Amino acid sequence: MDNLEDLKKRIDELKYKIYNHKLFCTRLNIQQVRYFMESHIFSVWGFMSILKSIQFNLSTTTLPWTPTDNTRNGLTNFINEIVLSEESDYIEGIGYTSHFEIYLDAMKEINADTSQILLLLKNIKDDGYIYEHVNRLNILDEVKAFIKFDMETSISGNLPKLVGSFTLGREKVIPNMFEHIILSVNDVASTSKFITYLNRHIEVDGDRHGPLSSELLEKICSSDQDMLLSYQFGIKSLKLRLKIWDKISEDLCIA
User: Fold this and answer.
1) pLDDT by residue (tens digit) across 8-52?
2) Which parts of 128-173 fold into alpha helices (H)?
3) Which of helix, strand or coil describes residue 91?
4) Which domain holds residue 113?
């Protein structure tokens, strides 16, 4: 049976693999950046569903409104602060926007294909979320598996699973991960909005969202069982990300 120390070591091993992945060890040309973004956009989108699910499960979402323990223990404040930035940030030169939409704009700036993410969003608006919408997309199978994991985790409403995927699989990894990505793309023409997206995440995740997400993890996972579950889902998220990056590296013939 897993113990927490073993799971923490596994998280560290996966983070090391992500930070030192061969995909970002050399400069990417514009075609390679496009190919990466066409897959990574689905992770950006899935992140928002996980984030909003945490918010729904920590906040009062019914009317009439009533206070809860979370309005006084800081959890509602923590998650609302993160949502405020991710869903409605103010970026100089761009205005108010979600980070997902900045990413979409960055894709358009370098002529990356946005058709599949836009098709998924349209189908969800029309019919709700169903597996078939994902299965029919013309994207990597590894990306489809990541989408399904994010959505299953989001829909579950299970806070230890959610905060594990969010904190351990995203917020505690993103700043260092994006710093490595920037080194591989910052001399590529026409990537200004992509660099803006990456730098904004490095700034807010490292300085504020990372510490807040750690507090969420500690407060939500008050039992050993919850903490184990949280780490297990953080590991699942990181493994799925690595599979995507391995496949992209293979397709781009990056040694």
Assistant:
1) 999 999 999 998 899 888 888 889 989 999 999 999 999 999 999
2) 131-135, 141-156, 159-163
3) strand
4) 4-58+79-250
CA nearest 243: which of 153, 104, 148, 171? Answer: 148
Instruction: Find, among 80, 88, 89, the residue nearest to 61 by Cα.
Output: 80
Q: Residue 249 in contact with residue 23, Cβ under 8 Å?
A: yes
CB-based contact 245:32 (threshold 8 Å): no
* pTM for this model (two decimals): 0.93
- Pick the closest to residue 49 from 105, 109, 128, 127 (CA basis): 128
- What the block records as the tokens of 187 is 């001399």
Which stretch of DSSP H or E encloses residue 97?
Answer: strand 95-97
Residue 255 covered by a domain: no
Tell me how far apart the alpha carbons of residues 205 and 186 are, in angstroms, rounded to a whole number.
Answer: 20
Into how many domains does the chain fold? 1
Q: How far apart are the first and last CA of the chain?
A: 36
By CB atoms closer than 10 A (0-12, 13-18, 19+), residue 8 is middle
pLDDT for 72-104, tens place per residue? 999 999 999 999 999 999 988 888 999 999 999
Alpha-carbon span 235 to 167, nearest angstrom: 11
The CATH number that applies at residue 39 is 1.20.910.10
How many other β-carbons are positioned within 10 Å of the β-carbon of residue 93? 7
Establish if 220 belongs to a structural domain: yes
